[in-house]
Amino acid sequence: MSEDDDRSPPLDLRGADIAESSNKTRNCSGVSGSGVPGPGPGPSSMEFQAPYPDQVLENVLENVLQFLSSRRDRNAASLVCKSWCRVEALTRSELFIGNCYSVSPRRATVRFARVRSVAIKGRPRFADFNLMPPDWGAHFAPWVAAMASAYPWLEKVYLKRMSVTDDDLAVLAESFPSFKELVLVCCDGFGTSGLAIVASKCRQLRVLDLIESEVADDDMDWIACFPENGTTCLESLIFDCVECPINFEALERLVARSPSLKKLRLNRFVSIGQLYRLVVRSPQLTHLGTGSFSAAEGPAQGEPEHDYLSAFAACKSLVCLSGFREILPDYLPAIRPVCANLTSLNFSYANINAEQLKSVVLHCHKLQSFWVLDSICDEGLQAVASTCKDLRELRVFPFDAREDSEGPVSEVGLQAISEGCRKLQSILYFCQHMTNAAVVAMSQNCPELEVFRLCIMGRHRPDPVTGQPMDEGFGAIVRNCKMLTRLAVSGLLTDRAFGYIGKYGKLVRTLSVAFAGDSDMGLKYVLEGCPRLQKLEIRDSPFGDAALRSGLHHYYNMRFLWMSSCRLSPQGCQGIARELPRLVVEVIRDEVAEHKDDAVDILYMYRSLEGPRDDAPRFVTILQ
Amino acid sequence: MEVSRKITNMMGTERDLNFKETELCLGLPGGGGTELETPKATGKRGFSETVDLKLNLQPKEESVKNDSKEKSLQPPCTKDATKPPAKVQVVGWPPVRSYRKNMMAQKNTSHEEGEKPNSSAALVKVSMDGAPYLRKVDLKMYKSYQELSDALAKMFSSFTMGNYGAQGMIDFMNESKLMDLLNSSEYVPTYEDKDGDWMVVGDVPWEMFVDSCKRLRVMKGSEAIGLAPRAMEKCKNRS
């Protein structure tokens, strides 16, 4: 999903429905071919019975605006005048809600009446790391209820970090006869029962993608719930995050009667022998998640050793490979036939070493996206750098995610990547320590960087060679990477680093800060210097009330601000709430930590048209 | 009620278990000498931290406050006693999602033990009275009763739990306290052990529990009351 956001503050949308004055004297009859300023073609005209002088112009506008796809352009168009706002609302078919609490379902469905596709984002990202008690909110239920009556023709739902229950899925399955695509990213609250309902009732289903979501095991055989007869419309079935076994025979039958299937990502309960049976049936796949990539458990199944090499060789269209959840490296050579065509390879669950990686990656000349574990070490990254000249996105995850673990990757790997992969646009790199020199090198070698996320796992760790803070490295990134929109900083950082960000990071939209900075000045630099800042998440940094106040001019332009374990007081947060009535200021108590003083555990604030939400749990206090 | 019948059966039959290990009489971990201990209580405990089986909505972790207000977890106790204790880990750091962390942890274990992760999973069904759906948990994902109770609380968020007291386990010898708990409308986790008997969770050391637990059921305290007297009898009979 793209991250573009409108920069305008939220409108009071009630004004959009007010009829224009009928005192206008413009004569339209000469303009249009029909000559009659009455209801024109198109379903929208039925809703406006009063004669409009601009009716014809509106119809023309509608015919033009329906081609506008970028939501940023649409947001701009809607601000031109009330007429444009109304027509834009009628022609918007894809609705994106970046924060589910910024607007109510009712308000959204009243303004945008003809939506076919909805995307909603819920929880703040730091909730993924257990920084907040569970059950904070972001419930899909009120949305699906509103949409069930407002959008009976709904086709697509995309949810990220939302709480979705089996009941919600049941409502979805029963309310939308044309439903085609369900994508759930980092969601939870539902189980295989909910999936079963979707599988059985959504007869037009093309896409069922479960990505990094938590799916409860209700002992329900959901794969068998897809309709048994005839072919299905399935194009994409992604369930690699589902942590329970599936009925493989049913899956095999399903794949056999899904001729349009292009994307299939299996979970770790599918063995390599079972994978073989699926791959030989569907050589047309473009995206494959291999499941465990290991032999089945238990006594010998009596399966012959399959010709995995030929099976993969038959997959001429395969461009994206992932899975390898319990990889037996002996099987790795089987994927060699597809390497030359791969644009995306995800080894981030595969505990392989440099040699094993090299046997594969040295053939992957077209690779653009590569996710991997740091088990490949700097040597593995050097191999990637030497081969993958077209690499755009790299993510290196830690095998051992602790502060004091050994660091298999270091500045050596980062330097190599920067020298070999000049087109790099996005990097996420976990390491134990890093040098400023390597970061500076990357800033110079990879000018197209848009996303730079460096996670030095040792907190407050300086450059091990110079002993200096990491200020200069990150400073170089914001200075040299002119297209940078997302930044995550780590290591020992003083206020100077934030000074650089404020001075040079003019396009930064998302900033993540942890264990960094010296004083309020750090946060002030950022809030005063970064006009495009939308999402700011900070933890365990010494920023207080004064710093918070320095962003008052900007908070209405942001999607959210998260500050946890900083130096905020309830009074300071209260002051913000009082001065910005359209901001919802949530103080979240993490009841684990007992406070001697009155400090605020977590501040989470966001603009909203609706005021305080009515579903806040008891550990959330909304200040006013 | 079938539960009581099973317990009666158990009482009447010979069991070739190590009584020392399975006896229900509890005291402080490490086998300190208190008046609550029976003579048979052993120091054989699988965990070194005291846990509170309070099932709150919020995850309850032991926290250490320092100047920068970091929240910390006590290091989980490992089975391998020869490993040095891990450095205290901060909550949510490094920022790796728990799904990924768990997957890596499984690989780590299997790497050391030479086993596939699948075979070391201890999946048990969890049902809660009144909940429409079952859940399943892998007991090997948790290292203590505390972690299990946090996970259960998250799963069945309408839980409220009574106070189990300072010790990690239920203080059977304090009858009135136990009766208060069981008489309340709070929920009590119970489990079916290898012999098919329903016991209240928390009666044995953690590792033993993982090995013997076949399924979990969360029931109202007032229902679990039927179990407790038998458990206490079991304890007395062994001494």
From TrEMBL, chain A:
Gene Ontology biological-process annotations: auxin-activated signaling pathway; SCF-dependent proteasomal ubiquitin-dependent protein catabolic process
Pathway: Protein modification; protein ubiquitination
InterPro entries reported in the protein's UniProt record: COI1_F-box (IPR041567), F-box-like_dom_sf (IPR036047), Leu-rich_rpt_Cys-con_subtyp (IPR006553), LRR_dom_sf (IPR032675), Transp_inhibit (IPR041101)
Top-level taxon of the source organism: Eukaryota
Gene3D superfamilies with a match to the protein in the record: 1.20.1280.50, Ribonuclease Inhibitor
Quaternary assembly: Part of a SCF (SKP1-cullin-F-box) protein ligase complex. May interact with auxin and auxin-responsive proteins.
Record-given protein name: Transport inhibitor response 1-like protein
Organism: Morella rubra
Lineage: Eukaryota, Viridiplantae, Streptophyta, Embryophyta, Tracheophyta
TrEMBL record, chain B:
GO cellular component: nucleus
Superkingdom of the organism of origin: Eukaryota
SUPFAM superfamilies: CAD & PB1 domains
Keyword line: Auxin signaling pathway, Nucleus, Repressor, Transcription, Transcription regulation
Gene Ontology biological process terms from the UniProt entry: auxin-activated signaling pathway; regulation of DNA-templated transcription
Domain PB1: residue ranges: 121-221
Compartments reported by the entry: Nucleus
Pfam families, alphabetized: AUX_IAA
Region called Disordered, residue ranges: 29-87
Basic and acidic residues bias (residue ranges): 59-72
PANTHER family for this protein: AUXIN-RESPONSIVE PROTEIN, AUXIN-RESPONSIVE PROTEIN IAA17
Described purpose of this protein according to its UniProt entry: Aux/IAA proteins are short-lived transcriptional factors that function as repressors of early auxin response genes at low auxin concentrations. Repression is thought to result from the interaction with auxin response factors (ARFs), proteins that bind to the auxin-responsive promoter element (AuxRE). Formation of heterodimers with ARF proteins may alter their ability to modulate early auxin response genes expression.
UniProt similarity note: Belongs to the Aux/IAA family.
UniProt subunit comment: Homodimers and heterodimers.
Name of the protein described by the UniProt record: Auxin-responsive protein
Source organism of this protein record: Morella rubra (Chinese bayberry)
